[in-house]
Amino acid sequence: MTPADDFARAVEAVLFAADEPMSIDGIRAHVGKGDVRGALERLAVDYAGRGINLVRRGDRWLFQTAGDMAHFLRRSREEVRRLSRAAIETLAIIAYHEPVTRAEIEAIRGVQISKGTLDVLMDAGWVRPMGRREVPGRPLTFATTPGFLTHFGLESRRDLPGIEDLRAAGLLDPIDLATEELAVEKPGDDD
């Protein structure tokens, strides 16, 4: 292998490991002196017609999936979605109190929930409508799904952690602990 090949390999390695497109000066900072532009041009030719290509965007370079191969990635790519605090609280209430109505969820949380919160949980496959409660207005009830159990590694809802488990794991907020202690204290205990 020639020194020019070793230099091109170094440029290739830097670009491959980069989190974002890199400028020639940015690449040079990693590989030292040499013909970075020449190495990039050789690599672009070498990668032409492959599954990935070396491309220039403005004054920066990056590896990207070849345009005619992108459809293979779209099908298998899973979108990671972060749940909002409201969604996490709502999911916990449903899991611990199911079947539960929207009004009951709001009473426990102390605030209204947006329709979108339940939609996100249903889209994730963790919550489903369970039926209607036989009370005036016949509100819809919600429950968790087998997908919820699978995702969280539970055999059944009985495997959900209890209050002692949550306390031991340090997952209870100090305000939750203080509120619980106040509820345990009885009037006249300070006599």
Structure description:
The protein is of the alpha+beta class. The chain has 2 domains: about 5-75, Arc Repressor Mutant, subunit A (Orthogonal Bundle); about 85-185, Winged helix-like DNA-binding domain superfamily/Winged helix DNA-binding domain (Arc Repressor Mutant, subunit A). The protein contains 10 helices and 6 strands; from the N terminus they run αβααββααβααββααα. The strands form 2 sheets. The chain has a 3-stranded antiparallel sheet with strand order 1-3-2. Strands 4-6-5 form a 3-stranded antiparallel sheet. A hairpin with a 2-residue loop joins strand 2 and strand 3 (about 60-65). The radius of gyration is 28 Å and the shape is elongated.
